[in-house]
Amino acid sequence: MPKENIYSVITRQLDLPAKSIKNTIELLEGGATIPFISRYRKEATGSLNEVSIGEIDAAWKSYKELIKRKEFVLETIKEQGKLTPNLEKQIENCWDSILLEDIYLPYKKKRKTRATKARDRGLEPLANEIWQQKVTDVYRSAKQFLSKEVKTVDDALAGARDIIAERINENNQARGAVRRIYERTATMISKVVVKKKAEAEKYTDYFKYEEAAKKIPGHRFLAVLRGEKEGFLRVKLGVDKEEVQQKLGRIIIENETKGSCRKQLQLAIEDAFDRLLSSSIETEFRNLYKEKADEEAISVFVENLKQL
Length: 308
Description:
The protein has helices spanning 3-14, 18-29, 34-40, 42-45, 50-79, 85-92, 97-104, 114-120, 124-132, 138-143, 153-169, 172-185, 218-229, 241-252, 259-307, and strands at 187-192, 208-212, 233-238. It is mainly α.
């Protein structure tokens, strides 16, 4: 992929002059250090300071890694014979690592999951019927899939829901919607591990603690994570489960879908969030807040060092 593509993306991201970014990257690629560029190449960079040059360097390295990942994703999907022109264009135009992984998720090589086991038992056609929402009586449809491995209607429907839950988890729109709810409303919740309460005195502030995740100061977030790592606290990022299910329902379930078909989709949505979506999205946001907290801690350290 042309370097110019990355130059333009970094220009938009950092809101710095395009020429300064291009010249800075060329100097970095030529082996020049950040202090050298800042002091002796002002005419090329437009007098950028070390902080701005460091931001360009970090962005450049990050996007080069993203390009490598995109090339791997394209090659993997191509080998599967599933790379369409639209999908190829979508991947090539993607400059967000999280969104790229969402796109790639349905094509990733999977370990043995509940959904793959259900497919092995021949239940994907039943899942397709429910997913397409054209069946009115799912119990009658499920009877057609009974076998030695699928002994009851409930077994058949449970397997079909496992397949549907995995599809919901791999749906870009669904993941994006859940991500936005976490971004807007996630709460950091910590509780003391009762058996270790006596040893956890330095974490007493977090024995029963809740705070909006996006408002937590970095030092507090890092303290909670330390308590968890040391085994004194149980920590989670929580959101309103009912809000998530309603949002996913509006994405997945058509208005005219009623009865047993709607019920099965609602159960699959609940399972998809509880078992798949919540853990992966929570991990994303933990990493994001941890990164911000680390940057905040470094900034405080730098400021204190300057004062000294």
